[in-house]
């Protein structure tokens, strides 16, 4: 009887034999078929069961033997390949072949200083050491790229076909040198131009991925226009697509500096880990490096991570969950440290050069040691669009905020929000915001436009604020201060202004400034310049400010009964030399200042001052207030002040004059001096030295001359006192003669007043002691003379008055004498 043994497969529905057919054999089941029929059906049912078992054993034995021989053959073949390939493949031949290929594609020379090694176990691999790619003509003799070690895995079947496609490359000790010359040429321009030409001649297989798949970065003229940032993006994409691992790399970008030495940006300890999704892990692309930038001076650490999904379109590159963190020290006074944190999704394409940033969330923080600010933070949220060919970036409306913290602000700082689209161009290093809309605390609303140039090299920003509105009272509170009592609350409810700002790395200028605070209007220009253009490297400040009217009595509660407080404010205005000892000497050392302040009217402590003007100059540790002038109470005050800090002790010199000024309203805030009234004229020259007010009073010296006309002495009736004294003398003489007293005692001299036509006096001051010997007071009924001393530091007085009741003024004395 003819029979066959078959092994069925579950992937087939039936197996055909020469003599019969069997359907639906289960996977792995042995079937016995006869020429006459099927098992268990028509045919001979007397076949013994032992025959089936015997044939199954024979089949299993033959299969196992075949498997063993196959494995042994593969092992022998692998061993032979491992032993013979290193001898069959001549490294020198492949060095030459690879160098020729690189020269053909790049025009550069590739040199091998190290060995090429083959490894067959545990899997085929190839390693090369000490590779170098030459630099472009016209640049330094140093190689553009150096690789300490290159290692990659090989495919066994490709080896058998004498093909050596490397995969899973690993690079160790890579050094890259990028250079630009004074003409703007780069040492990578020729490589990008050759790459563009090759893309025009060759087609890239769909399944292969390379840097050629990225958007074209070459200008229509054929000259490469790839910036350093774009070149870095291309390199990262190429490394990621080819799954290349980079360890302990470094890179430099050098361009002409101010002197003979080039200015170089340097990245050290560069590590690049490609994306991995194998073994149950989903590790993103990761880049880390230590970065040093010469201008502005920065040294810190940079980390970058992103996920690159499977490529569905060669024209589109996706970076998901992109995160960039930069933190380090910056030498850009007053800034000392900064941190940049940027998170977003990045898409390049499908249009050439297009870049789309979605779900952006970035933050730039700068820390400082300066008193102006301790921390500055700029945040941005939302989407952004960029064109890599032109370098243009657009941030849509809203999403940008600015926060500053300082010693003078609340702990949370002050935050402003931008509500305008922002256009930037990183190639031209420009930023443009028009219209500019900003909101902030204290109901701040700003409108205008902004333009910035050379942001990455020599920043320059111009801002025109056409409208600024805010609440002065709320702003005072937002600045972390308690609002003092306000006489007129409406004066602190609304403020407005406008100005034009120009800022660069060395100066700040404010022009056409107008500020209105509750009816107090101030306008003018202000500039602050530091660095090379400033005098001797100091901060140079220039200002010209003028105001129409300022009513401090309307703002602050300086009532008459608050004499000490009112007099302090008024003295500070009429005698600005009084606050000079309070100025910080360290601040004066670093400033070159010159400016002028003018104010039409100032109301302070129930005193009306008009036509105020002050010219100020600070240079070489000398402060001059000359002249300063104001009108008050029908008179004029003029003065000159010099505060000299050049010597061991500060020196103060004051020249001052008062002409025809009414004393009664002027001395009203000073209760101890209210006893004198009249029209005053005063001329004085004073000088002193000392580090504080006490020292200045002790060392004060100089002279003064004073004349008061048509006035009076309040609280003392000298005529009545004279008559009382004369009556007392008569009674004393009568008592001596034995006569009785007549009349009653009177004490009217202790009240009332003493009118006079003229009061004159001169004085000399030495070591803080004022001496006078020629005081003269003339009235129609009496004449007074006086002499004595007054200690200015202690207010100690030793003074004698002599009254002559003979009558009128002497001949030759006039009201203007």
Descriptive overview:
There is one protein chain. This protein has 12 helices and 40 strands. The protein has 817 residues and is of the alpha+beta class. A 6-stranded antiparallel beta barrel has the order 17-18-21-22-20-19. It is elongated and about 180 Å long. The N and C termini lie far apart (163 Å).
Describe, in short, the structure shown.
This protein has twelve helices and 40 strands.
Which terms summarize this structure?
alpha+beta; 18% helix; disordered N terminus; two-stranded antiparallel sheet; disordered C terminus; single chain; 46% strand
Q: What is the element layout, followed by pairings?
A:
Elements: E1 3-7, E2 14-16, E3 21-23, E4 30-34, H1 49-88, H2 91-106, E5 110-112, E6 116-119, E7 125-133, E8 145-154, H3 156-160, E9 166-179, H4 189-201, H5 228-241, E10 245-255, E11 263-273, E12 285-293, E13 298-307, E14 317-332, E15 335-348, E16 354-368, E17 375-387, E18 392-395, E19 400-405, E20 414-418, E21 422-425, E22 430-440, E23 444-453, E24 460-470, H6 472-478, E25 495-504, E26 507-517, E27 520-529, E28 539-547, E29 550-551, H7 552-555, H8 563-574, H9 585-589, E30 591-604, E31 607-619, E32 622-632, E33 635-644, E34 651-662, H10 663-666, E35 676-689, H11 693-698, E36 701-714, H12 718-736, E37 753-766, E38 769-778, E39 783-791, E40 796-804
Parallel strand pairs: 9-10, 28-30, 29-30
Antiparallel strand pairs: 1-4, 2-3, 5-7, 6-7, 7-8, 8-9, 10-11, 11-12, 12-13, 13-14, 14-15, 15-16, 16-17, 17-18, 17-19, 18-21, 19-20, 20-22, 21-22, 22-23, 23-24, 24-25, 25-26, 26-27, 27-28, 30-31, 31-32, 32-33, 33-34, 34-35, 35-36, 36-37, 37-38, 38-39, 39-40
């Amino acid at each position: 009887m003819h029979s066959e043994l078959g092994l069925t497969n579950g992937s087939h529905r039936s197996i055909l034999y020469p003599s019969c057919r069997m359907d639906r054999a289960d996977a792995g089941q042995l079937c016995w078929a006869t020429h006459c029929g099927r098992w268990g059906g028509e045919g001979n049912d007397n076949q013994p069961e032992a025959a089936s078992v015997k044939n199954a054993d024979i089949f299993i034995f033959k299969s196992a033997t075949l498997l063993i021989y196959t494995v042994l053959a593969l092992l022998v073949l692998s061993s032979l390949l491992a032993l013979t390939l290193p001898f069959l493949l001549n490294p020198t031949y492949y060095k030459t072949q690879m160098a020729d290929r690189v020269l053909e594609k790049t025009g550069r020379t590739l040199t091998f200083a190290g060995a090429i090694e083959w490894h067959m176990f545990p899997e085929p691999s190839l390693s090369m050491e000490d590779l170098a790619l030459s630099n472009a003509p016209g640049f330094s003799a140093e190689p553009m790229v150096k690789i300490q070690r290159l290692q990659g895995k090989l495919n066994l079947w490709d080896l058998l076909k004498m093909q050596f496609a490397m995969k899973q490359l690993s690079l160790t000790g890579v050094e890259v040198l990028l250079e630009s010359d004074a003409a703007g040429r780069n040492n990578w321009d020729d490589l990008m131009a050759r790459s563009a030409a090759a893309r025009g001649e060759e087609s890239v297989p769909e399944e292969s991925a390379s840097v050629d798949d990225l958007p074209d970065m070459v200008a229509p003229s054929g000259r490469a226009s790839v910036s350093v940032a774009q070149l870095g993006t291309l390199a990262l994409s190429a490394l990621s697509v080819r799954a290349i691992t980079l360890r302990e790399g470094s890179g430099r970008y050098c361009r002409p500096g101010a002197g003979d030495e080039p200015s170089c940006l340097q990245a050290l300890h560069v590590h690049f880990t490609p994306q991995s999704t194998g073994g149950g892990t989903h590790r993103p692309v990761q880049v880390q490096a230590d970065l040093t930038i010469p201008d502005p001076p920065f040294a810190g650490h940079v980390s970058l991570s992103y996920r690159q999904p499977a490529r569905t379109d060669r024209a589109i590159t996706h970076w998901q969950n992109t995160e960039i963190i930069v933190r380090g020290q910056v030498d850009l006074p007053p800034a000392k440290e900064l941190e940049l944190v940027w998170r977003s999704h990045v898409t390049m394409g499908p249009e050439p050069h297009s870049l789309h940033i979605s779900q952006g969330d970035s933050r730039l923080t700068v820390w400082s040691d300066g008193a102006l600010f301790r921390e500055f933070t700029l945040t941005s949220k939302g989407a952004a669009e960029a064109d890599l060919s032109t370098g243009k970036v657009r941030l849509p409306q809203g999403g940008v905020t600015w926060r500053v913290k300082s010693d003078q602000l609340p702990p949370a700082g002050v935050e402003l929000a931008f509500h305008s689209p922002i256009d930037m161009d990183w190639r031209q290093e420009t930023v443009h915001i028009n219209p500019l809309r900003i909101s902030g605390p204290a109901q701040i609303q700003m409108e205008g436009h902004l333009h910035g140039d050379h942001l990455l090299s020599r920043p320059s920003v111009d801002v025109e604020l056409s409208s600024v509105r805010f609440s002065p009272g709320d702003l005072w509170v937002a600045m972390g201060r308690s609002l003092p009592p306000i006489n007129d609350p409406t004066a602190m409810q609304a403020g407005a202004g406008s100005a034009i700002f120009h800022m660069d790395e060395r100066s700040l200028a404010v022009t056409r400034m107008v500020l209105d605070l509750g009816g107090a209007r101030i306008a003018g220009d202000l500039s602050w310049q530091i660095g090379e253009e400033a005098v001797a490297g100091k901060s140079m400040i220039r200002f010209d400010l003028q105001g129409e009217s300022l009513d401090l009595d309307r703002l602050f509660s300086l009532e008459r009964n608050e004499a000490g407080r009112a007099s302090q404010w008024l003295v500070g205005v009429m005698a600005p030399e009084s606050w000079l000892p309070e100025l910080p000497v360290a601040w004066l050392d670093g400033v070159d200042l010159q400016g002028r302040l003018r104010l039409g009217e100032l109301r302070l402590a129930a005193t009306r001052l008009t036509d105020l003007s002050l010219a100020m100059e600070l240079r070489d540790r000398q402060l001059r207030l000359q002249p300063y002038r104001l009108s008050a109470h029908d008179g004029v005050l003029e003065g000159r002040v010099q505060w000299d800090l050049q010597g061991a002790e500060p020196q103060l010199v004051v020249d001052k004059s008062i002409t025809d000024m009414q004393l009664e309203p002027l001395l009203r805030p000073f209760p101890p001096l209210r006893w004198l009234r009249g029209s005053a004229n005063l001329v004085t020259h004073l000088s002193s030295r000392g580090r504080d007010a006490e020292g200045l009073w002790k060392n004060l010296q100089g002279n003064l001359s004073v004349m008061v006309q048509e006035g009076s002495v309040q609280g003392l009736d000298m005529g009545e006192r004279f008559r009382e004294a004369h009556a007392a003398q008569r009674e004393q003489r009568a008592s001596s003669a034995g006569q009785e007293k007549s009349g009653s005692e009177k004490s009217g001299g202790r009240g009332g007043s003493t009118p006079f036509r003229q009061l004159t006096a001169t004085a000399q001051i030495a070591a803080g002691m004022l001496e006078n010997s020629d005081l003269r007071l003339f009235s129609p009924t009496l004449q007074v003379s006086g002499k004595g001393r007054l200690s200015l530091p202690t207010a100690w007085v030793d003074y004698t008055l002599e009254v002559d009741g003979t009558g009128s003024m002497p001949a030759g004395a006039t009201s203007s004498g």
